[in-house]
DNA sequence: CTGAAAGCGCTTACAG
DNA sequence: CTGAAAGCGCTTACAG
């Protein structure tokens, strides 16, 4: 435990220069003669000097911290997104202030406020369910660059990155229809913009076939494993002849797989099931899940890239990235 | 975008007091008369004052940021641990600087260094595989409170929180043995302290029964879904008569479940399988996984609690938390 | 090519 | 109960 960490002044004294010179050397300024710079660097090493970022940022009014708020880290989809975001941000020299809000709007306000106090250089937000669009204005009024990801917040001028939910579900549903199923259910999920978009894709696929949409075939539930499990049990009970369904997301599909297994039904032979997201786990589930691939980790990287761009160019026009969705057929459909 | 954010000086002017008074009021000092305090608060609100934490911390040499470094966020086990850590830390008024190192020791050094520059109030570290014990000394020399979690780094005086790996696997293996299996395999995982401990539990259980340990029954692989999948396929190929195995962790067990399913084998009837960790997913896998419960999220909270305690009392003696392991039987064994 | 000076926004003794 | 003053560790014009 070093009693007292050396400052720029100590280094200056050691190297026989002024602290201005030390500061310049430390940031690699070409203004300082090589010989002097070497002397300063040696002194810094000798004293075990550590840059005090806080002080530097206070003075320069800069920041290298970016806040990212996630709601449901227990869902691997978000964990993968976070990994992508973190990678991109760290590569760009930032540090991430991570907060988990478990869909709690109040907590979300609190952590956002805290990120503001920390003087975050930017904020990446996947809004908690029921988040008011007013947060957008609030954050913008703070002058902090923001990019919203996954769940959009309706029309507005904010940057956004998300998956092509509607088209993805359209593809999945169409695939099931093409495979000969006359009736296909929609399973899991229950509210929020993403749900609405996915359900829309489902409806459009039906429509394209001249099929009529029926509420009876949508089985709402939490977008979680348990939710998918319960929804599938309900489906099996109420619609015993239904043999195909597209799920709100992969995690719900896993729950459905579990429910199917319990009844001795084999996904892919007794029941056709499609997931959504293509989280890593789908490749080795039992059985491997057919799903819609939106490349979660890459999506996270893209979202972060947008924020980085916005920080660089605050005046740029609105940026939006929609991750293309493609069918990934494995064994469940 | 407010042109210029108000400072304590602006508030002081607005309220007709000195900035010292404002500072005191803002931190709720009882020194200031109620009436004055109210006036200051009103002024702060009126001006939209935002506390500049950076400045305050520079002056007071304090910090409310805690660094947490995770290696494999793609493994839900770690995601759950992180959720526990984050919850505890945020509840205590801290902010988390999260870094993901994907088992890259070099990157780990880099992020650790960065946390130091940020003047982190503490660090929670789950060391990347092959991390040298020297990091411990390094971090300690920085004077930053540290708690290591999940993977311990050998003997030393650092605080630590992890699961009872040895006993947990002992229980799982014994359960399989008690169920009548004469031979049980050990599947997945391949290096690191945790692996060693778990394998040790396996050996002890064998020993307690007078059974001899054979390398032939351990199937190494990455501690991931793919790893478990591959290990199970190897097992099935090389030891067709083996009908039971304990897995290195839940995620490997999922991969094994997938491999079993592919061969038309039903876990729990054709093959007995035990996982380890009890991540949320196990409750609704196909079929639901029997596992060893070490309460991941709570473990994360406990680990964070240790760091908090250490920050409060730097001189306290070594703190260690070992999450008790208990058998959780579902359908695979 | 390098130094002296001012200042970022706060906190903390110290007076009164 | 409140104010004046010093200072946290840096950066950034400005001189020279």
Report on the architecture of this protein.
- Two copies of one chain form a homodimer.
- With 333 residues, chain A is an alpha/beta fold.
- The first copy, chain A, has three domains: 44 residues, no CATH class; 129 residues, Rossmann fold; 129 residues, Response regulator (Rossmann fold, 3-Layer(aba) Sandwich), CATH 3.40.50.
- Chain A has twelve helices and twelve strands.
- In chain A, strands 2-1-3-4-5-11 form a six-stranded parallel beta sheet, with helices on both faces.
- In chain A, strand 1, helix 5 and strand 2 form a beta-alpha-beta unit.
- Chain A is elongated.
- The first copy, chain A, starts with 7 loop residues before the first helix and ends in a 5-residue tail after the last strand.
- The mean pLDDT of chain A is 94.
- Chains A and B meet through helix 4, helix 5, strand 2, helix 6 and helix 7 of A and helix 4, helix 5, strand 2, helix 6 and helix 7 of B.
- Chain A binds a DNA duplex (16 and 16 nucleotides) through helix 2 and helix 4.
Highest CATH level, the class of the largest domain in chain A: Alpha Beta
Rounded to an integer, what's the Rg of chain A over CA atoms?
26 Å
Q: Biggest interface and its residues per chain?
A: A-B, 59 and 58 residues
Task: Domain count of chain A, please report it.
Answer: 3
- Write out the strand line-up for the largest beta sheet of chain A, numbering strands in chain order: 2-1-3-4-5-11
- Total number of beta strands of chain A: 12
SSE topology string of chain A: HHHHEHEHEHEEHEHEHEHEEHEE
Instruction: Calculate the mean pLDDT score of chain A and round it.
Output: 94
The CATH architecture of the largest domain in chain A comes to: 3-Layer(aba) Sandwich
Strand content of chain A: 5-15%
Biggest beta-sheet profile of chain A = 6 strands, parallel
How many helix segments of chain A? Answer: 12
Tell me roughly what share of residues is in helical segments of chain A: 40-55%
Give the low-confidence spans of chain A: none
Give the termini distance of chain A in whole angstroms.
60 Å
**Shape of chain A, please?**
elongated
Oligomeric state: homodimer
């Amino acid at each position: 435990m070093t009693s007292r960490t050396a400052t720029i002044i100590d280094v200056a004294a050691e190297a026989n220069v002024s602290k201005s010179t030390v500061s310049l050397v430390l940031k690699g300024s070409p203004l300082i003669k090589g010989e002097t710079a070497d002397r300063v660097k040696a002194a810094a090493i000798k004293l075990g000097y550590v840059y005090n970022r806080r002080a530097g940022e206070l003075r320069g009014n800069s920041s290298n911290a970016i806040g990212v708020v996630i709601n449901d880290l227990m869902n691997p989809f978000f964990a993968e997104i976070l990994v992508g975001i973190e990678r991109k941000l760290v590569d760009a020299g930032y540090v991430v202030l991570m907060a988990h809000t478990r869909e709690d709007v109040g907590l979300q306000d609190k952590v956002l406020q805290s990120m503001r106090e920390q003087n975050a250089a930017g904020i990446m937000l996947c809004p908690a369910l029921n988040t008011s669009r007013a947060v957008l204005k609030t954050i913008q009024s703070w002058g902090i660059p923001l990019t919203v990801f996954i769940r959009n917040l309706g029309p507005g001028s904010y940057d956004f990155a998300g998956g092509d939910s509607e088209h993805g579900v359209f593809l999945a549903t169409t695939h099931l229809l093409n495979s000969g199923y006359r009736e296909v259910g929609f399973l899991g999920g229950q509210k929020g913009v993403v749900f609405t978009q996915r359900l829309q894709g489902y409806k459009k696929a039906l429509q394209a076939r001249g099929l009529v949409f029926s509420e009876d075939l949508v089985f709402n539930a939490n977008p979680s494993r348990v939710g998918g499990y319960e929804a599938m049990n309900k489906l099996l009970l109420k619609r015993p002849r239904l043999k195909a369904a597209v799920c709100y997301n992969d995690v719900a599909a896993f729950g459905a797989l579990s429910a199917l297994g319990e009844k001795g039904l084999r996904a892919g032979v007794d029941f056709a099931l499609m997931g959504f997201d293509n989280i890593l786990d789908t490749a080795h589930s039992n059985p491997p899940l057919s799903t819609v691939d939106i490349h979660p980790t890459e999506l996270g990287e893209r979202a972060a890239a947008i924020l980085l761009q916005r920080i660089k160019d605050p005046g740029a026009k609105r940026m939006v990235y929609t991750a293309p969705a493609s069918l990934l057929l494995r064994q469940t459909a």
